[in-house]
Amino acid sequence: MAILSAQETFSNAQAITATAASTNVIDFGAPGTWVHSSTPVIDDKGNSRIPLLIQVTEAFDNLTSLTVTLQADNDEAFGSPTSLYAETIALADLQPGKKTAVRVIPYNATERYLRVHYTVTGTAPTAGRITAAIASAESAFGAR
What we know:
Blueprint: E1 4-15, E2 20-21, E3 26-27, E4 52-58, E5 63-73, E6 82-90, E7 99-102, E8 113-122, E9 129-135, H1 137-141
């Protein structure tokens, strides 16, 4: 069982019936500045070792595969997103309970906003749900 925060959840049992972005975007806020400087501090989220949990909560049908991509952008509308991580999951593995856990958000994640983007390959599904969120290491990867 994963321990999740509503403020750090990208998708909460989100139905994926076509290529789409997560229902929620995480805003890390505008970077601060050094004292007596107008230059923003470069804030690398990847240095924080933040785990990301992606879990299938309802079985998928029809599609061939689903690509789950963690994206970052300085534009909340994600006009030109940067892909930080991507995994393609075959239909056979898109069953309830399937977990993918990324141990850290990759280094050089310096943009303000994060979201998850789902890309459907093949026929659009009529069933299938995903929960994706930043989670504690223990809940994402199991107790050590």
